């Protein structure tokens, strides 16, 4: 039962992490002064639509690397915020370096910085939702086996 609950915690952690990464990507690429001033409901609808679309792209791109990192963390019982922020940042950095503008004279341009920040945000949010309890399902399973 603990593994079943853990499975859903990991899924929700991944989805909320992608949502945070999408929010960072969208908000960081808005023109200056866009978030100032009065808003109507239509503006919020467009902003949330862009964030959800960006989160969908992030989840498609980051699924396989995230599964690998999550499996390693669950196996080793890694619960460090630094680990998840570093893993997300590494993924964002590697993705940002694949853009053609990053291979120019300045490899760490604004695009790479934004993808790095989005990866770190995704890693931190994943840690908040699911990473703090990594590996605890094994301890509960071991206790249940002792009671039999």
List the helices and strands and how they pair.
Elements: H1 2-28, H2 41-76, H3 81-96, H4 110-129, H5 136-147
Helix pairs in contact: 1-2, 1-4, 3-4
List the main descriptive attributes of the protein structure presented here.
148 residues, mainly alpha, globular
Task: Please characterize this protein's 3D structure.
This protein is mainly α and 148 residues long. It is built from 5 helices and no strands. It has one domain (2-147). The longest helix is centred in the middle third of the chain and has 36 residues, at 41-76.
Average pLDDT rating:
84
Approximate helicity band? over 70%
Element pattern in H and E: HHHHH
If helices are DSSP runs of H or I spanning 4 or more residues, what is the number of helices? 5
Radius of gyration: 18 Å
The share of residues in extended strands comes to under 5%
Question: Spans with pLDDT under 50 lasting ≥5 residues?
Answer: none
What best-fitting shape do the alpha-carbon axes yield? globular
What is the CA–CA distance across the termini? 15 Å
Describe the main β-sheet briefly.
none
Overall structural class, as computed from helix and strand content, comes to: mainly alpha
How many E strands?
Answer: 0
Q: What is the domain total for the residues?
A: 1
């Amino acid at each position: 039962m603990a593994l079943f609950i853990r499975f859903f915690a990991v899924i929700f952690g991944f989805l909320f992490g992608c949502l945070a990464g999408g929010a960072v990507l969208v908000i960081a690429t808005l023109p200056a002064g866009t978030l100032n001033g009065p808003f109507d409901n239509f503006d919020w609808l467009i902003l949330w639509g862009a964030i959800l679309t960006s989160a969908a792209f992030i989840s498609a791109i980051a699924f396989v690397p995230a599964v690998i990192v999550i499996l390693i963390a669950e196996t080793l019982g890694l619960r460090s915020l630094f680990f998840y922020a570093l893993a997300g940042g590494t993924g964002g950095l590697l993705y940002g370096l694949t853009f053609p503008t990053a291979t120019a004279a300045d490899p760490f341009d604004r695009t790479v910085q934004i993808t790095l920040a989005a990866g770190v945000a995704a890693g931190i949010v994943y840690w908040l939702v699911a990473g703090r309890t990594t590996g605890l399902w094994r301890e509960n399973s071991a206790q249940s086996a002792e009671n039999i």
